[in-house]
């Protein structure tokens, strides 16, 4: 038995965070009730910070934007214009009930997407998300190579259906990250596709995301 590809929805303009959380919750409820199928929802948010379930108060340095407590995993992160948010409402009941494997697939999806633009995204033990080595920048005080984060991942599961998801930096204002310690990690920085010198727009990224999705998310029967 084959299953349909998830519905892809792209929202124009800026979507309020609380509105997005409510919409995701309603859709997941509809999925549980058999009234809706899987969905990949692509949005942009106005400038804001979110605090995941592991967020530490000390990592909020300057609440210059609204701060939203959220039920996803992870710590503090920033969302804003120029950043693509990918909300993944996927049914792990048929894709395999493996949380670690699911997060690994999300990371792999980002890596495959970045590779479409010639970027080598990497993962690091103990640091969720996708990183880009920056050998052209000054090394860290301990001599380690500088690495910048280009994508954050934070998910929540409700009866094995996922929501929340991924953020990938296309061309956000990177100075906005200065109000937090992103994901609780000091020393390393953040980057974006445009910061890396690529003339990539949101539509380019969306097309790459869709083209690479099935490489990591072939549904189980």
What's the helical proportion of residues?
10-25%
Rg from Cα: 17 Å
Strand proportion, as a percent range, falls in 25-35%
SSE run:
EHEEEEEHHEEEEEH
Per DSSP E runs of 2 or more residues, the count of β-strands stands at: 11
Number of helices: 4
The gross shape turns out to be globular
The mean pLDDT is 91
Assign the structural class, choosing from mainly alpha, mainly beta, alpha/beta, alpha+beta, or little secondary structure.
alpha/beta
The N- and C-terminal alpha carbons lie at a distance of 6 Å
Largest sheet: 8 strands, mixed
Can you lay out the helices and strands and say which pair or pack?
Layout: E1 7-10, H1 17-32, E2 39-43, E3 48-51, E4 67-69, E5 76-79, E6 83-89, H2 92-95, H3 99-115, E7 122-124, E8 127-133, E9 147-158, E10 161-169, E11 189-190, H4 202-216
Parallel strand pairs: 1-2, 3-4, 9-11
Antiparallel strand pairs: 2-6, 3-5, 6-10, 7-8, 8-9, 9-10
Helix pairs in contact: 3-4
Describe the structure.
The chain has 221 residues and is an alpha/beta fold. The protein has 4 helices and 11 strands. The protein has helices at 17-32, 92-95, 99-115, 202-216; strands at 7-10, 39-43, 48-51, 67-69, 76-79, 83-89, 122-124, 127-133, 147-158, 161-169, 189-190. α1 links the parallel β1 (7-10) and β2. α3 (99-115) packs across α4. It is globular and about 55 Å long. The mean pLDDT is 91.
Brief overview, please?
This protein is an alpha/beta fold and 221 residues long. The chain has helices at 17-32, 92-95, 99-115, 202-216, and strands at residues 7-10, 39-43, 48-51, 67-69, 76-79, 83-89, 122-124, 127-133, 147-158, 161-169, 189-190. The protein is 24% helix and 27% strand.
């Amino acid at each position: 038995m084959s299953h349909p590809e998830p519905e892809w929805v792209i929202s124009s303009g800026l979507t309020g965070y609380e509105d997005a959380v409510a919409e995701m919750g309603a859709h997941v409820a509809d999925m549980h009730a058999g009234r809706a199928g899987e969905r990949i929802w692509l949005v942009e948010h106005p400038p804001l910070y979110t605090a995941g379930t592991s967020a530490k108060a000390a990592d909020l340095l300057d609440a210059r934007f609204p701060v939203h407590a959220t039920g996803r995993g992870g710590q503090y992160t920033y969302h804003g214009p120029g950043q693509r948010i990918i909300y993944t409402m996927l049914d792990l009941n048929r894709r395999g009930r493996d949380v670690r494997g699911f997060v690994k697939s999300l990371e792999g999806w980002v890596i495959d997407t970045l590779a479409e633009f010639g970027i080598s995204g990497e993962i690091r033990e103990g640091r969720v998300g996708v990183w880009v080595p920056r050998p052209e920048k000054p090394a860290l005080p301990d001599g380690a190579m500088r690495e910048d984060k280009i994508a954050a991942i934070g998910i929540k599961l409700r009866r094995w259906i996922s929501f929340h998801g991924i953020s990938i930096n296309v061309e956000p204002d990177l100075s906005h990250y200065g109000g937090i310690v992103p994901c609780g990690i000091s020393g390393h920085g953040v980057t974006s596709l445009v910061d890396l010198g690529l003339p990539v727009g949101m539509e380019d990224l969306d097309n790459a995301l869709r083209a690479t999705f099935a490489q990591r998310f072939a549904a189980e029967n």
